[in-house]
């Protein structure tokens, strides 16, 4: 732990040193010029490979990720004027995967000389856990595609853009599931998801709505062509699938399309695409339809 406070009284320096030495939270002490005055061991441990103590006397913002520097500086300016704040910043790191998220409490602890204490708690694990839970909540665990919740979120972001919503429903899936069992049925769904991903463009969004229903959201583009996409999808899906036990099955698919036009609720568009798909399913198992 390093403390350098030439303008402070010996009593203040000793008090700060004692607090810093005993705290398990990350702690910085910054002066009115936003220079780093003191740093404790918890802070140095949060940045392995970085000689944090060598930065004492340097710009405190060097410890913060570049994108957070402006707000960090503003928080220090506010604290110097007596206004405390609580903010989340990411520490500077040579590796994005090694960046630590920190919740800071920033407040002035001395007016003369002006000293600002930044007390931080590492929230990286908690943040990662929240992100993982969010991802799980919007991901279909069987296929790895977005689930209904993830699809609805994406449709909301694409609302009014004119994007195409392509509703896909497998033909013959129930008979495979009933005759060969759920393991075979799951294998069909996983292979279907894989084939859909390989067939669409990188910018297209693929989701499993539920059961044997899949949805593809195609952003508006001069190259986007429903008939061409439908033909590619049908060719991909209708290739025989090898299931557990070496059994081969051939699955068909019906497809319908609707558009995310301005002023139309995305869920209504999804319902419309579903209805278009059923029109074609009632005629031929593997034909396609477009909602003009």
Q: Indicate the proportion of strand residues.
A: 15-25%
Strand order of the largest sheet: 1-3-2-6-5-4
CATH architecture of the largest domain: 2-Layer Sandwich
Low-confidence stretches: 285-292
Distance between termini? Answer: 70 Å
Largest sheet: 6 strands, antiparallel
Compose a concise summary of this entry.
The chain has 292 residues and is α+β, with helices and mostly antiparallel strands. It contains 9 helices and 12 strands.
Provide structural commentary.
This protein has 292 residues and is of the alpha+beta class. The chain has 2 domains: 2-127, PAS domain (Beta-Lactamase, 2-Layer Sandwich); 138-283, 2-Layer Sandwich (Alpha-Beta Plaits), CATH 3.30.70.270. It is 38% helix and 24% strand. A hairpin with a 4-residue loop joins strand 2 and strand 3 (36-39). It is elongated, with a radius of gyration of 29 Å. It starts with a strand and ends in a 9-residue tail after the last helix. Mean pLDDT is 85; it is low at 285-292.
Describe how the helices and strands are arranged.
Layout: E1 2-3, H1 10-22, E2 26-31, E3 36-39, H2 41-46, H3 69-80, E4 85-90, E5 101-111, E6 114-122, H4 124-137, H5 148-158, E7 164-171, H6 173-180, H7 182-199, E8 205-210, E9 213-218, H8 226-237, E10 241-242, E11 248-249, E12 252-259, H9 266-283
Antiparallel strand pairs: 1-3, 2-3, 2-6, 4-5, 5-6, 7-9, 7-12, 8-9, 10-11
Helix pairs in contact: 6-7, 7-8
Keywords:
single chain, 292 residues, alpha+beta, Beta-Lactamase, Alpha-Beta Plaits, 2 domains, 6-stranded antiparallel β-sheet, 4-stranded antiparallel β-sheet, 9 helices, elongated, disordered C terminus
């Amino acid at each position: 732990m390093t403390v350098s406070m030439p303008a402070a009284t010996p009593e203040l320096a000793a008090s700060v040193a004692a607090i810093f030495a005993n705290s398990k939270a990350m702690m910085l002490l910054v002066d009115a010029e936003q220079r780093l005055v003191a740093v404790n061991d918890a802070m140095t441990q949060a940045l392995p490979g970085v000689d944090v103590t060598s930065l004492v006397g340097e710009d405190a913002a060097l410890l913060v990720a570049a994108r957070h520097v402006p707000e960090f500086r503003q928080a220090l300016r506010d604290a110097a004027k007596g206004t405390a704040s609580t903010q989340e910043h990411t520490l500077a790191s040579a590796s994005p995967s090694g960046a630590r998220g920190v919740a800071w409490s920033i407040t002035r602890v001395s007016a003369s000389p002006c000293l600002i204490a930044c007390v931080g708690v590492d929230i990286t694990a908690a943040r990662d856990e929240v992100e993982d839970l969010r991802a799980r909540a919007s991901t279909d665990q069987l296929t790895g595609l977005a689930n209904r919740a993830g699809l609805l979120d994406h449709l909301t972001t694409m609302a009014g853009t004119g994007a195409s919503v392509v509703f896909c429903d497998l033909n013959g899936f129930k008979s495979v599931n009933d005759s060969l069992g759920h393991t075979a049925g799951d294998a069909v769904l996983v292979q279907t998801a894989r084939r859909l991903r390989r067939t669409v463009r990188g910018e297209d969004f693929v989701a499993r709505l539920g059961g044997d229903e899949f949805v593809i959201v195609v952003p508006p583009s001069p190259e986007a062509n429903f008939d061409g996409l439908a033909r590619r999808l049908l060719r991909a899906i209708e290739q025989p699938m090898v299931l557990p036990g070496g059994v081969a099955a051939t699955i068909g698919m019906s497809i319908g399309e609707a558009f995310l036009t301005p002023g139309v609720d995305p869920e209504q568009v999804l319902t419309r695409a579903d209805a278009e798909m059923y029109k074609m399913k009632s005629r031929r198992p593997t034909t396609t339809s477009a909602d003009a």
